Protein 1
Amino acid sequence: MIEDGAEVVDGRVAGEQGESGEAASPREVCWRGRGVAFAPLDVDDAELIHVWRSDPVAAHEIGIWPRSLSAVRERIERDRDEHDRDDFLVLLPDGTPIGHIALTDQDMVDGTAEIMLLLDPDHRGRGHGTDAVDALVDLAFGELPMHRVQAVTHTTNTGALGVLARAGFVQEGVRRSACLHRGRRYDVAVLALLRDEWREFTRPRSWDVLITGQ
């Protein structure tokens, strides 16, 4: 987990207030990229995650199913104690939370990990997904000793495939009929980005850019 150099941004959802009627506390930013920032995922974020997971488009494209709020909270609490994953809330420059991104199944010996991303339905199709993935792979290759970062998604999930392609991921193959969701079998695309490929990118790295919202 990256803990040094934390900064504070206004982490409120529009109109969100605390129990006293005052604005919610700012979120500590632990990583930043082009147009987005990451804050460590907290148990108090369970309600947001629950809403995003309940979106029918996300449930269909990602192959997830809605869980109860208490189950989501328990899952976040359990994942916090896992040493092979890092979970973050994706924030806009004004602190608005727009998604959940994670680097999971981290193997420090082999240098491998898998990326997971879930965006707020209201903020899809605006480039935020690519910005978030770019920032996470910069973390994986620039701060962690990863050699290969993998992503998997349904072959019909054109939005996710586009995000990953723009972030430099290469499709390696298809696991045929590998996912059962709502009584139907789905093929799953396997994509990956290698450290040497990341080194060839000409875009600024996360530590070279400020959050400008542009």
Note: Residues 128-142 form the longest helix (15 residues).
Protein 2
Amino acid sequence: MTQRNSRPLAVFDLDGTLADSAHRQRFLERRPRDWDAFFAAAPQDPPLAEGVALATESARECDVVYLTGRPERCRRDTVAWLAAQGLPEGPVWMRRDDDRRPARRTKSEILRRLARDREIRVLVDDDELVCDEAERAGYRVVRARWASTSAALRSAQEREGRT
């Protein structure tokens, strides 16, 4: 095992944890929801200072991994946004474009995959159901409660499997 591979992982969600998506949640309050506009506006998300500080601090002892419910088609914008914020480099795990399972299911599956080879020191996420599921599986969780989330976004995360 190399030195880098022996370091534990700190796993960070994006929307509501590192990125303030409040300005684009309005696209989810419409019927039908405008997912294209919601994701197209993501590059304009302001960073959330608390999450950015925690990711930067975590990088001292851990390799940082990003685990998001955003679809794979958003990868280029997402990677560019992370770099623009000066966040630690790390792999970005995204949902397949056609995956509509609840975030708690997709993220749990990826956490199990990551834990096969590495210790997961912490998961930082704003989705309470994701956090509950991760805690039940034995992971240490930090609940990112520093951003406001609309009811429409919470519903989308759980029922529509879109973020």
Note: Residues 8 and 119 are 5 Å apart (CA to CA).
